[in-house]
Amino acid sequence: MTLALVGGGATGVEMAGATAEIARLTLARDFRRIDPRSARVILLEAGPRILPALASDLSDYTMRALTKMDAEVRTSTRVTACDRRGVDLDGGRINAGTAIWAAGVQASPAAR
After folding, report:
1. Residue 29: which CATH number?
2. Within a domain: residue 112?
3. Are residues 48 and 76 in contact, defined by beta-carbon separation less than 8 angstroms?
4. Is 86 in contact with 100 (CB distance < 8 Å)?
5. Has residue 13 been placed in a domain?
6. Among 29, 73, 78, 83, who pairs with 46 as Cys (CB 3.0-4.6 Å)?
7. Is residue 26 part of a domain?
8. What is the domain count for the chain?
9. How many other CB atoms sit within 10 Å of the CB of residue 22?
10. Mind giving me the DSSP string for the chain?
11. Which domain holds residue 60?
């Protein structure tokens, strides 16, 4: 039960926090056969910190809050590819049943 969230902006951070909370609290009450401690929520950010548009103290606070919720936060970690089994990183791979892309996008060259 691994969920990889790509992008440490507001959307990715919010999604990581909500997912970690659901995994630890809601699933524990609603599903008797799921051990919420086995759920792994990983937030991946290519830049040096999450929430780069905000002040660094807010970024640090948010990182601590996510860590307390048992979400893993990896900064300076660039995702190079995604497939149905997980995500490839510059320095390895994370096998994940679910990957959610919350990072920026670039328009197709045809849009120019």
Report:
1. 3.50.50.60
2. no
3. yes
4. no
5. yes
6. 78
7. yes
8. 1
9. 15
10. -EEEEE--SHHHHHHHHHHHHIIIIIHHHH-TT--GGG-EEEEE-SSSSSSTTS-HHHHHHHHHHHHHTTEEEE-S--EEEEETTEEEETTEEEE-SEEEE-S-----GGG-
11. 2-100
pTM of the model: 0.88
**For residue 74, pLDDT beyond 90:** yes
CA distances from 49 to 30, 39, 53, 72, 100 (A): 34, 24, 10, 13, 19
Look at strands 86-89 and 79-83 and give their pairing: antiparallel
- Answer whether residue 105 is part of any domain: no
Residue 27, class by beta-carbon neighbours within 10 Å (0-12 exposed, 13-18 middle, 19+ buried)? middle
Q: Which residue has the tokens 């990072």?
A: 103
Residue that wins the pLDDT comparison between 34 and 65: 65
Which band of pLDDT confidence, cut at 50, 70 and 90, is reported for residue 104?
A: confident
Task: Give residue-wise pLDDT tens across range 11-27.
Answer: 999 999 999 988 877 77
Confidence of residue 69 (pLDDT cuts 50, 70, 90): very high
Residues marked as catalytic: 14
